[in-house]
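Lecture 7, part B: from sequences to assemblies.

Below are the input chains for today's worked example.
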Amino acid sequence: DSGVTQTPKHLITATGQRVTLRCSPRSGDLSVYWYQQSLDQGLQFLIHYYNGEERAKGNILERFSAQQFPDLHSELNLSSLELGDSALYFCASSLRGGSSYNEQFFGPGTRLTVL
Amino acid sequence: DQQVKQNSPSLSVQEGRISILNCDYTNSMFDYFLWYKKYPAEGPTFLISISSIKDKNEDGRFTVFLNKSAKHLSLHIVPSQPGDSAVYFCAASARRGSSNTGKLIFGQGTTLQVKP
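Predicted structure of the full complex, as structure tokens:
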């Protein structure tokens, strides 16, 4: 158990819909990262938040957005869903941000299926 | 643009023998490298890491070697156990001053099977 929690574990929805994925980092960790793992892709970085502020963006679609709240939990919002958005979405946390060597600890993931 | 590459999709070894997983990278700004293990339906689990100022880091049965001139790293597992069967991901990151700051760039993974 990494200490990172993600809800829900599974999500099935229809094209065009909007969903919210939730992540609670390990106690004391200030950074939250979101990654997407599709069937034909490895783990792809989406976005990084540190203590409530956006720090880095990867290949995140404009239909996707995220935020980190004062209690440090984070939400990833996916809208106007398409079939290709079906994937595993992982959240990871680390103690600090990108200026230090720090391991990222991953949650169990949310499996999103868009029908 | 695949900045981190694991060229072997799979590897099969006998229990008790050495498993060697390889990883190559292209971005010279990377200065921190990590290995993760992933079981089906679970998130990646951190195994071991190495910074660019070292060429070897050891933790129990796991050793990571870094060859900066070749932009190559490897994970050695000795002795291999059936419970080590999983997908292994190599990842790299860069500190401040690079577009890769804070994020991990992952390889495609290598599936290790350890046969009893």
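Note for the exam: DSSP finds no helices and eleven strands in chain B. Keep this in mind when comparing with the next example.
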